[in-house]
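Bit of a strange request maybe. I'm writing a small parser for structure token strings and I need a real example to test against, not something I typed by hand. Could someone generate the tokens for this chain?
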Amino acid sequence: MPDNKEQYFDILIAGAGFAGSLTALILHNQGFKVCVVEKGRHPRFAIGESSTPIADMQLRDIAVKYNLPWLHDFSRYGSWQQSHPEIVCGIKRGFSFFKHHPGQDFTTDANHKNELLVAASVDDIQSDTNWMRSDVDAFLVSKVQEAGISYFDLTEIVSAKRNSEWEFNCICPEGAMVIYAGFYIDATGGGFLLEKLTGVKTSSDSFLTDSFTVFSHFHGIARWTEMLKDANIPTADFPYDPDNSALHQILDEGWIWMLRFNDQRTSFGFVLSCKEQSLKGLQTAEIWDAMLAKYPAIKNILKDATLAAEPGKIIQSARLQRKVDRCFGPGWAVLPHTAGFVDPLFSSGIAHSISGIQKLVLNP
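Reply from user aminoacidic:
Good idea to test on real output. This should exercise your parser:
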């Protein structure tokens, strides 16, 4: 153990997304001396925004089990709005799917042959939520700081070595810094830092799924339900308004997510096959324009849309599928989004992350 006890921690958590901060709060309440190291600064743009009934139940369980009573309010739209209306979110009544065909306006029939709506709650008050991650993540960081947990932002871990404990060499705005810790949790959401510190590789080789995303946040995206009504497509028997759900537009090349927030922003993105020949060699804007040209109804959804200030541009990801070779080792472990990713369909990411937290904090 180093002479400077103030720089020694039982556990260092790399990454201050919602999962890293929540892990820190739980471990702190269990009596561990924890620090969180964040390369960037909050608030910051992030996706992975759609919660589910399983995630909501997990939040309620954690709130009770680990003495975080304020967390319970984030498990339903109604209690969220009562307790923290300043933290942006959206109503998510279920999962909605609408199938489109190239070169055609959206069509269906009286039996809703190109539509599927799966309800997950009985009303808006009990509804799941879409998380504005910049707001949620920043709020959780404030809770980390409020709890007295050491928090270092704008701090990059440049190297590390481990003997009886970890020695992390970091660069922060004040210069070089050394942090000592007994255990390291990677909550960065990718494999880059893990490989740099431990040599554990990340690969995509074993996946059959092969997709990427093109996405952003927008203002002024048309409401899909109103477009259906304008086209004289019946909506009266819908169990909820599809715009208040995880709304999916299904395409030949992949699918679209549309997640609305209560500040009039919408998260909108394409998930597309990397094997789609018509998109090979195109730049991000060209891919976007090609998809709008191919699907008239999608182009109409976006005709009055403008980019939100954050991120302020359309972003293209690399291939989504990845996994690390190992999820834990001597003195370290990773959270699920660092461990790997397959596809955002069915909004499983938040629940997976919380499940990983619950498993890890039982035996850190």
